[in-house]
Amino acid sequence: MISVIIRNRNEEQFIGHAIQSVVDNLDDFEIIVVDNDSFDESIDIVKLFNFENIKIEKIQDYSPGRAINTGVKKANGDLVMVLSAHSQLIQKIDEDKMCDLLKEYSCIFGNQIPVYRGKKIKKRYVWSHFTDGDEENMWSNLESRYFLHNAFSLFKRDFLLENSFDESLPGKEDRYWVNKIIERGCKTLYKHDIRCYHHWTVNGATWKGIG
After folding, report:
1. Separation between Cα atoms, residue 209 and residue 193, nearest integer Å
2. 37, 69, 152, 203: most buried, per Cβ within 10 A?
3. What is the pLDDT of residue 88?
4. Is the dihedral of CA 56, 20, 148, 93 positive or negative?
5. What domains lie within the chain, and their CATH numbers?
């Protein structure tokens, strides 16, 4: 089973699409929505799905790392997928294949297709990392460090329990985490042929220019 962790803060525009994409593309899953004091209708939308395998966890003193760590502790699956509330899976995920890869790699992250108000846009800035070929231990020339993006990533739950994300960071917890584990000799894999849409939001931290 894959435990899908979705971090939510007022994501009413997209969270239903994110959840439906999990339902459509995973065969054996649970969804853990970690909510950061949302005051819009996003939690009402989550409840519309009315599945026993969807859980809502409220979090205080939010940080991206604390939200993921909270979800991991509540997870029942051997695999954990971190999926942005404004991302959508667009193809079936082969759980057995991911399990096999995660015997060798500490993390797999997928190809993100940026979508601005419904329009697919050029992969510029941070999106330029998501190329058309697989890459082990991806190095970012833009950031001068190893790269990982948690909008669509997969891990072994046990590995995350032993190697949690830094809860003190206000952002880019993924970059700090991946650099730490690679320096320890672990490996990561960018898998270009597992893909998602990543939708623009007004407060999106990874968008720098559009078009």
Report:
1. 25
2. 152
3. 97
4. positive
5. 2-199 (3.90.550.10)
